[in-house]
Amino acid sequence: EVIDWCIRERMIASERKCRVCDKNMDLVCKKRVNDGYMWRCRGRPNEREHDVSISVRNGSWFEGSRMSICDILLITYYWFNRLPIKYILKNVKVTKETVVEWMRFCREVCMDICMNENNAIGGMNAIVEIYECKLGKRKYHRRRTIDGRWVFGGVERGTNRMFFRVVENRGKDTLLAIIKSSILPGTTIISDCWKTYDCLEDEEYRQLTVNHSLQFKDPESGAHTNNIVRTWSAIKRQMSTNPRRGQLDGYLAEYMWRSAHPDKFREFLTAIKRIYNPDDVPLQS
């Protein structure tokens, strides 16, 4: 029984208070509603007469959708396991637009979690590689022109910790502000030989550079940015299409979340419950 499972997993509320009498409502069978159940409270003797009903989806991941709870869980599970849209459409009888929308909802969960867990990376004896990349679609017949947005990011060596920011401009002040909020002082930062980064040692960082126009590894210091370059390649592979404006943050957050929580669907459900907590819904007046 899907409802029982959702209650056990706290995907939907295990109890509800009546907004009229403040007593626990009853979970009753209701064949006319989509889920077959709803919360209900009827006025009892010596009480104010009332008949209050609340959807079992109230405040949950499932609220506001006409799809069955089972289908929503299936799409969430298929998205987590990177199954293609064609596969999902064969197994869940919904439109392509609905699948795309729910995949976007899943990425928004990743965004919320990444924002709440926005801890700076690096520190003493740590190395962080930073790099910039324009993510988007290469224009037809124009090899060196990419239609997309600039993203600035960093990867800490030896861990899965990273950060990414979509930037509207690549000016010194913008990138330095991101570095100071995302990388701890004392970190050794490896970057491209670009003038914007020349001030890093003045900001309590140690800087090593690589000139990518000449080589991919500095012969004297051994500095390289292979890790961050591989990460950019993985992100590009994940985005099979050119994301619409405003959706790139979601793809980046998805990559960050997956890197920190590989192959653990239950952890993603926990993330959903942190954002869509049905127990946090106040009584309606």
Describe this protein's structure.
- The chain has 285 residues and is α/β, with parallel strands linked by helices.
- It folds into two domains: 2-62, no CATH class; 121-261, 2-Layer Sandwich (Nucleotidyltransferase, domain 5).
- It has helices spanning 2-8, 69-80, 85-91, 96-116, 172-182, 226-238, 248-260, 265-275, and strands spanning 26-29, 37-42, 51-55, 121-122, 127-138, 146-156, 162-167, 183-184, 188-192, 206-210.
- The chain has a five-stranded mixed β-sheet, sandwiched between helices. The chain has a three-stranded antiparallel β-sheet with strand order 1-2-3, with no helix packed on it.
- A hairpin with a 7-residue loop joins strand 5 (127-138) and strand 6.
- Helix 2 (69-80) crosses helix 4 (96-116) and helix 4 crosses helix 7.
- It is elongated, with a radius of gyration of 24 Å.
- Mean pLDDT is 78; it is low at 137-147 and 211-224.
